[in-house]
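Kindly review this record before class:
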Amino acid sequence: MDERLNGHRYAKAAVDIAIYDLLGKHTGMRVADLLGGAVTESVPSYYSSGVGSPEEIARIAADKMAEGFLRMQVKVGGRPVEMDIEVIHRVWETVGKGMRLAVDANRGWTARDAILVSQACRDIPFVIEQPCNTIEEMVAVRPQLNHPVYADESGVDINTVLRLIEQRVVDGFGMKVTRIGGLHAMATFRDICEARSLPHTCDDAWGGDIIAAACTHIGATIKPNLLEGVWLAQPFIEGHYDSENGIRIVDGHIPLPSGPGLGIRPDESLFAQPIASYG
């Protein structure tokens, strides 16, 4: 697809995932095995909060730790950084070393904000995810931070990932399967990160069983010491495309589907009529 058309990675990702599912169902192989082989049958997930008050986010963190989640992503930004600092301290006081913490600004901090938060929380272990909007801002602020920095929105393609690594801007990534172009590109990204010992997530911004299964299959192929987890929208969505084999989180982990391909068969009656059919 890239030879025929530049860009449009989100659209290509849908085709890419469908092809892997078809190939797996044709050969009787799971997508995880097509992507190099699963190293686990139970993929760790993580929970992501919204932007909230210190009391609310600390309560959520305690609840999710009790449910078996090993990692919590705390959303911040879009308000005075003093509130973000208070949230981070309250969450740390609540869960301590019981969970790994990521503080995700989603590009919502200025360079000054990022420095202030990192200095005010220097004794609390966490990673800062996408603190600023541009790569240039992240390059400028990186030497002044006390915490590891992960790129999320900046990791738009393989070339940009290589640039971020080469310039030593980041210590890891929050990576979305559809943003980078699908499972084929995600496997390339996985191998690059493994070569440089860079941890990363393997998830997507939203979606039901199809994208959840895709993220789980590629997540199962990542070395456990490099996988930060697979986030799913499943806790926020009612029902499944596949009522029997829908992707679910159990005790903070996602069981890898056992069937061929993605391991799910969506109920086609849930969807509208196709615009076009081929083959």
Q: What stands out?
A: The chain has a mean pLDDT of 96. The two ends are 18 Å apart (CA to CA).
